Amino acid sequence: MTEIGTVIDGKYEILKEIGHGGMSTVYLAMDKRLNKQWAVKEIRKKGSGKNDEIVVNSLLAEANLMKRLDHPALPRIVDIIDNGITIYVVMDYIEGESLDKILSEYGAQPEERVVEWAKQLCDALSYLHSQKPPIIYRDMKPANVMLKPEGNIKIIDFGIAREYKEQNLSDTTVLGTKGYAPPEQYSGQTDPRSDIFALGMTMHHLLTGIDPRNGEPYAPVRQWNPELSEGIEIIIDRCVEPAAENRYQSCSDLLYDLEHPELITKGFKKKQKRKLISFIVSLSLSIILAVTGVVLNLAATSVNNNDYDVNIATSDPEKYFAAVEIYPERTDAYEKLIEYYKNHDASNEEITKTGNTIEAHADVLDLTQPAVADMYYDMGKLYFSDYDGSFKSRAVNAQNFFEKASSAESASFDKKSISSCYYSICKFMTNQSTTTEHTLDEYTELFEEIETALNTVSQASDSEANYDKISLYYVTMLLINDQAEYMAGVGFDRQTALDLMDTLNQNTNSITSTLKYVNDLKDEIRINYDSFITNINAKYNEVEKRQQGGN
Length: 551
Hints:
Blueprint: E1 7-8, E2 12-20, E3 24-31, E4 36-44, H1 52-66, E5 77-82, E6 86-92, E7 97-98, H2 99-106, H3 111-129, E8 135-136, E9 145-147, E10 153-155, E11 162-163, H4 184-187, H5 192-208, H6 221-224, H7 230-239, H8 251-259, H9 266-281, H10 285-288, H11 292-312, H12 317-326, H13 332-343, H14 348-360, H15 370-386, H16 391-407, H17 413-430, H18 440-458, H19 463-489, H20 494-510, H21 516-547
Antiparallel strand pairs: 1-2, 2-3, 3-4, 4-6, 5-6, 7-9, 8-11, 9-10
Helix pairs in contact: 3-5, 3-8, 5-7, 11-12, 12-13, 13-14, 13-15, 14-15, 15-16, 16-17, 17-18, 18-19, 19-20, 19-21, 20-21
């Protein structure tokens, strides 16, 4: 064990032990340079057990998996230090209480609170499932969810998470927590629907106080507490269906029902059925006497068409989401959502929900259609322009959208070229670890591609093209600001970086537009430009000082 007061790597002073397992101990540590607290997991390479190597490899796999993830509900890995005998993994220190501790102290939780936690967990799981390949968490339970003081949640313990491999017939390792894990986790291959099952059991436990590990036969939540809503009971029952094909097929679908539980109740369905019957009765007698199946189909289609058109004619994003569920293959509702959030101060949750909704319906969206390619392109830009997160998190979220836009034959030459540039930036950031820097050649190649895209977009002059221009200017500035320390470390010329920043700033100032979202982005660049330049120079100065031995 590491002694209290030890300073690791000249930076992290061990303050106290906060947890331990078979071959690992977790400490609270203070970063002496940043004056910030971190959690440090100590992994001892050799112990007394015959399975030591397996355990160490599992812990390292967890660290390597997490260091490439960037989501508000997931802890960050900021450093990995290997001294030959011991490995130290430096990560976010999460203040708060686990949900199982809250259950132990206070019992079953109010429905409103559990639904809010479930929404956050859906968002986090959806992010994991959207990775390439998808990451299956496999151990969702109250003990692995921390509630922070401000009310947000964090998922911890990624020790048994795995990347989904479509060709596998079964998981390599059978792990999980009895009662929360779905049947296939013990007899087949897990996939995103496995996490949905465990989330359903977690919600059931939080709402009823009944621990599924105790072997109590499953019963719907209202049998334990009749005051719970019909909607939440239906949602949980669908989550925990034994057969994966009967569950929600994505966390996006689950999230939609959590936000609109009234739409799945028997009362609502009866009301919709009455509306449909009323519509059919209003048809002329000659049509009613036609083939019944054809009539019903026409009636349902007419109702759907009407509902779809009514929903997209509003200025309400929730109506747009409802329209998507009616005709997920059409692009109008998605485009309305993106346009709405371009013109309004959208939250991360709203943008992520839009992106997840598109991802959930990717199988019915035809990329041979120009409108679909444009939609993916615009969604990627929305993540970069309006998402309030680190540059890496923006890149990670946007990557799949630009990948599809850049590969779409239906995309225009300009958008195809710019999407390809964005995609390169996204891959560049996603592949960057906390311990390995990109090379000078990689930075040079990336900026050459950016320059090509900048030249391409500079030729256009219409109002939407102004948004394309300024978005790419902004992203390039963010990239240089974010990567300044790494660029300096590999010898990328400081003046070249500053000259590019100046050019981007001048190009931004030359753009005139009446569009709000263009001017909002222009204002953001103007406000941040000086601080970007200050930070870039500071990072270069720090690196030069280190390289000169601190003199």
